[in-house]
Amino acid sequence: MKAQRKDMCTQLLERYNAEGEAFLQRILTREESWIHHYDPECKAQSMECRHKTSPSPRKFKVVASARKVLFTVFWDMEGVVHMKFLEQGQTEL
């Protein structure tokens, strides 16, 4: 695999040397990641009035809900071109 990566990098470098900036402007990169989706409690909601000597309130562990979304982002040398959130079980079509 290292040899394949080296060969690919060499080819890309040769194309850059031949075509210059025009080659870089045509490159589009994609990244995707699964994101757990939940609505955290805001700071104002978690504040409560209490006396200094009273015990601190119980905080429940924040657990990500069963919902997760696939986040996909495309970018080029200028910046982000497209972003998309896709719920689990959905397809791009």
TrEMBL record:
Source organism of the structure: Plakobranchus ocellatus
A molecular function GO annotation: nucleic acid binding
Name of the protein in question: Histone-lysine N-methyltransferase SETMAR
Lineage summary: Eukaryota, Metazoa, Spiralia, Lophotrochozoa, Mollusca
Name of one Pfam family that matches: Transposase_1
Top-level taxon: Eukaryota
